[in-house]
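dumping this here before i forget
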Amino acid sequence: MKVIRLAAGIFILLLFICPNIYAAPAGNPSDTKMPQGDGIAKLKDTVGSVKVSFDADSIIDRDLKGASDVTSAEMEGEWYLLRLGYPMFEDRFEPYVKLGLSHLEASWKENSRFVVVKGDNEMAWGVGGRLLAYELPEYRIKFVIDGQYRSTEPDIDDVTVNDPSRTVSASEFKISEWQIGGIVSMEFPLGAGKRRGRYYKSDIYSLVPYVGLAYSDCDIKGKFTYEDTAYDIGNAESDDKIVLITGCDFVTPENTSLNIEGHLIGETSVSGGATVKF
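structure:
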């Protein structure tokens, strides 16, 4: 019960902090010290550990707020990003870069017409950093802050106005997102022995469930001209910027972890990923 109360207390503190610092999704893995082993190539004692991760993020529904004459604006689609991270300062801070592909679309109502703009598969990139802000080793509880930015500018693959596809001109489609936030995680070792109330550090497989809040915003530009009429979503942003994060890592002893994560409230999305430590 003491551990549960402690975890609940940290989470309540997070509820008050995150809306004021702007928050963002984290995970895969949920903290900078995972995986805990030396890695495949054991680079830690020479150039330092390197983490290579793959994230697949599927946005099911994200409501947007566009121009004054735009209603029912939404975004959906997928991001597929390879992430390269470099843990520093005894694995407490991890800057990273991302590179991959996006496949996104935006829809809205304008001039009594329903418009859908679909982007093609286009290069996407991002940067970010993760900080292990506080931990309680005795209870395997950690508090992590993560901030990131990602962007893509796809060519328009298809535009529909009141359903049929249209040939358009003077088109633009650009998506940028910036996010910073925090999560609380608690590690549960699987099949590990104990010594004086502590788990052995070797040969431990772990489940690491986590929960947190995020402040996530975006800037979406989508416009085109059809039959001398200009359609423009008008620098749309997220309608609800607070996001609830839930997820879980499965971590091996030496060099790999798997992750699944879901977002609710501000957006509905699910992501999955894997990390390998070198």
